[in-house]
Every structure is written in C-alpha cells, then in structure tokens.
C-alpha cells in the first residue's frame, strides 16, 4: 500500500525517533508499504518519520544512483542492488573531509541544495530480521544512509544549510507546508491535513 509522505513543517519530522522491538505491530507489512511508497515516489531512501511514525526505522535502495554515467564502474557496481533496512541505527563514527553533494528529500519536494557530509561512516543497526550488524560505508551509500539517519534524529537536510540559504528557500518551504506544490506522489500536509 502506498502511504502519504509527510511534508515539511509536520512536527513528526523534528522529533527524535524511538527504538522499536521485534514485536512491533505488523512490521513486515510496514516494511512492504515503505518500500512501495519509496519506489512510487522515485526515492532512494525513506525513514519512518516521513510516513508519520516516530520510530527508528529507515530503508535504502541506491540502485537508481548506479545508472549515473559519471560514476566509475566500481561505484556503479557498489550502488547497484544496495538495498537495506536499518532498525534502531546508531552512527558511531564519521570520518574524512566533508564533501558537498546536491541533496533532495521526498518530504521537501522541488528543493535541492548542496549539503556537506563526511564521506565515511560506521553504523550499528538491526536488519529486518532484527540481526545486529556493525558496518562501515563510504561515498554515495554513506551519504544516503546519513540523510535517512538524520530523519530518525529529527534533522532535515535543510537544517544543515547556511542561514543565507535558509532565508533564500524560506518561501518555498512555507509553500510546501501549506500544500502549495504539485507532486506526483501522495503527500500529507501539516497546514491542510489533507491527502493527495
């Protein structure tokens, strides 16, 4: 089932999410719905707060990035088929010199800005079977994970912009929160409480 994606301005996007346990209600169905919702909106990641649930859960599928012809064969191969579920994740280390990449977000449609992040992370998480992992990722995979991880910490990519950039996009963000935007996927807007 395709769920509405919560738009910028909704309080759930600013909350630090809570851990979940194996007995979370209809967990498998929730994962299926989240993947379906993400693919329907042509996303490469989706966090539970983006569908209105303040829980520490996000998923990633970087396959669409693998089609970028500017990337090396090695980078394309790493991105192709990288599909993961992250439960109760904690980034334990971020390394390297920050680099800029133009980011967007399904909750903030039609706004894209350069965001600086470190290129390498170590993360501890549970997978969809609640098996524990500790892994290190770098490059675009690390970038997507960091973006989705921020969602479960109550942080949006726009929070990482300079005060000047924030002022420049303020009107667009206000319009998104009021539902004054055309999107080709279902959204829930905080000011209107209506679904599209």
UniProtKB/TrEMBL annotation:
InterPro entries: Peptide_deformylase (IPR023635), Peptide_deformylase_sf (IPR036821). It catalyses: N-terminal N-formyl-L-methionyl-[peptide] + H2O = N-terminal L-methionyl-[peptide] + formate. It is an enzyme of class 3 (hydrolase). CDD domains: Pep_deformylase. GO terms for molecular function: metal ion binding; peptide deformylase activity. Binds 1 Fe(2+) ion. Its cofactor is Fe(2+). The active site is at residue 148. Fe cation binds at residues 105, 147, 151. One of its GO terms (biological process) is translation. Keywords: Hydrolase, Iron, Metal-binding, Protein biosynthesis. Its EC number is 3.5.1.88. The keyword Magnesium does not apply. Belongs to the polypeptide deformylase family. Removes the formyl group from the N-terminal Met of newly synthesized proteins. Requires at least a dipeptide for an efficient rate of reaction. N-terminal L-methionine is a prerequisite for activity but the enzyme has broad specificity at other positions. This is Peptide deformylase. It comes from Algibacter pectinivorans.
């Amino acid at each position: 089932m395709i769920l509405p994606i919560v738009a910028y301005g909704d309080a759930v996007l600013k909350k630090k999410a809570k851990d979940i346990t194996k007995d979370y209600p209809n967990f498998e169905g929730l994962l299926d719905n989240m993947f379906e919702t993400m693919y329907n909106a042509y996303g490469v990641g989706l966090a539970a707060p983006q569908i209105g649930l303040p829980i520490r859960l996000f998923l990633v599928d970087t396959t669409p990035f693998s089609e970028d012809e500017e990337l090396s064969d090695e980078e394309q191969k790493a991105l192709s088929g990288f599909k993961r579920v992250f439960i109760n994740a904690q980034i334990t280390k971020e390394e390297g010199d920050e680099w800029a990449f133009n980011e967007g977000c399904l909750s903030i449609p039609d706004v894209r800005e350069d965001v600086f992040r470190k290129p390498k992370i170590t993360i501890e998480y549970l997978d969809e079977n609640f098996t524990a992992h500790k892994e290190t990722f770098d490059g675009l995979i690390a970038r997507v994970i960091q973006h989705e991880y921020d969602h479960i910490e109550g942080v949006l990519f726009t929070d990482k912009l300079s005060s000047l950039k924030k002022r420049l996009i303020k009107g667009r963000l206000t319009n998104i929160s009021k539902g004054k935007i055309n999107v080709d996927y279902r959204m829930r807007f905080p000011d209107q409480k209506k679904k599209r």
